[in-house]
Write a structure and sequence with these properties.
The chain has 162 residues and is an alpha+beta fold. It has four helices and ten strands, in the order βαβββαβββαββαβ. The protein has one domain (2-158): 2-Layer Sandwich (Alpha-Beta Plaits), CATH 3.30.70.560. It has helices spanning 15-28, 67-80, 122-131, 144-149, and strands at residues 2-10, 32-37, 41-43, 54-63, 95-101, 106-107, 112-113, 137-138, 142-143, 157-158. Strands 1, 2, 3, 4, 5 and 10 form a six-stranded antiparallel β-sheet that branches. It has a two-stranded antiparallel ribbon with strand order 6-7. Strands 8-9 form a two-stranded antiparallel ribbon.
């Protein structure tokens, strides 16, 4: 079984509800075991600024699926929740990203793991750190605490306690 961390984000159609619905869908998948979810955070948009703020979280799951099989499952959930891919970094009902897949480093046409930009995105690192041991090392990037030290919480607001 692979331990997997999935990033969740939404800024359309009741974002908090979108994330909660996605978490429920993940819990129902027979192909994985849900472990836990991080706190929820609000963050300004990374791309075009003429869109609402995002709500972000990270969940930890275990699965026997291959990484791209899991990606297919996640994209189905995104599509079922109204995800339309029109603009890079644009507004969306739901974004589900495989952040870490065990200790694997993946660089395929469809998937890069650890997720690209993970070390610079506070809206990914802080929710991820809610779920990790402080000594955790992200493959190829270093320790979570070192990454957090170089990525301030600027603009990030914790909304819930896990």
């Amino acid at each position: 079984m692979n331990n997997v961390f999935i990033g969740l984000g939404s800024n359309l159609d009741e974002p908090l509800s979108q994330l909660n619905k996605a978490i429920e869908r993940l819990k129902q998948l027979k192909t994985l075991t849900f472990i836990k979810a991080s706190n929820f955070y609000s963050s300004p948009p990374m791309g075009p600024q003429d869109q609402p703020d995002y709500i972000n979280a990270v969940v930890e799951v275990k699965t026997n699926l291959m990484a791209e099989q899991l990606l297919d499952e996640l994209q189905k959930i995104e599509n079922d929740q109204g995800r339309i891919r029109t603009q890079h970094w644009g507004a969306r009902t739901l974004d589900l990203d495989i952040l870490l897949f065990g200790k694997d480093v993946i660089n395929s046409e469809r998937l890069i793991v650890p997720h690209c930009g993970i070390s610079e995105r506070n809206f990914v690192l802080y929710p991820l750190s809610d779920l990790l041991d402080s000594n955790f090392k992200i493959p190829g990037l270093g320790g979570i605490n070192d990454l957090l030290a170089d990525c301030p919480m600027t603009g990030l607001i914790r909304l819930t306690e896990a």
